C-alpha cells in the first residue's frame, strides 16, 4: 500500500513518541535536527509527504525539506541548495499495523531510527518502524 500525498504525523513504533523538529531551534539558516519528542505538551509536528513519481517521496516538516547530513543524521534543510539525500522510500509493513512504515533513503539502503533511551535524540539512518497518521487519525 503506497502512502497518499498529504499531511501526516510521524511517531516511533517503540513508545509512540512524536518525530519532528525540536520546538527550540537557533535562528540561523543552518539545517535543523529531526528528533524524537519525548515530552508531553508538544504540538504535533506535521509532515507534508508528496510522491515524486519514481516510487520515492519528498518529505517536509516545518516548511523545510528533509534530507540527510554526511554524518547520517536526518535534518530539515531551510535552504534548498543545501539539501542532501532528499528523496525517501516509505514502505508499508502491514504485519506491524495499518499505520506502520519504514522510511529509507531513496535507494533503500538505510532507514530512519533513533536511540530510545535519549531524550530529543536526533534521528539517524538505520531501520526503524514509524507510524504515519493522517490529520483525521490524530485527535
UniProtKB/TrEMBL annotation:
InterPro entries: Inhibitor_I66. It holds the Pfam family Inhibitor_I66. CDD domains: beta-trefoil_Ricin_SPI. GO terms for molecular function: serine-type endopeptidase inhibitor activity. This is Uncharacterized protein. It comes from Lentinus tigrinus ALCF2SS1-6.
Amino acid at each position: 500500500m503506497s502512502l497518499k500525498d498529504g499531511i501526516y504525523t510521524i511517531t516511533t513504533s517503540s513508545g509512540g513518541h512524536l518525530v519532528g523538529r525540536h520546538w527550540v531551534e537557533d535562528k540561523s539558516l543552518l539545517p535543523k535536527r529531526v528528533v524524537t519528542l519525548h515530552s508531553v505538551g508538544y504540538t504535533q509536528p506535521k509532515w507534508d509527504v508528496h510522491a515524486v513519481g519514481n516510487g520515492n517521496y519528498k518529505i517536509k516538516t516545518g516548511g523545510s525539506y528533509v534530507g540527510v547530513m554526511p554524518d547520517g543524521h536526518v535534518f530539515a534543510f531551510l535552504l534548498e541548495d543545501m539539501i542532501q539525500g532528499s528523496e525517501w522510500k516509505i514502505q508499508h509493513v502491514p504485519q506491524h499495523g495499518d499505520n506502520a512504515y519504514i522510511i529509507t533513503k531513496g535507494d533503500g539502503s538505510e532507514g530512519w531510527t533513533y536511540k530510545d533511551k535519549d531524550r530529543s535524540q536526533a534521528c539517524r539512518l538505520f531501520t526503524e518502524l514509524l507510524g504515519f497518521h493522517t490529520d483525521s487519525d490524530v485527535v
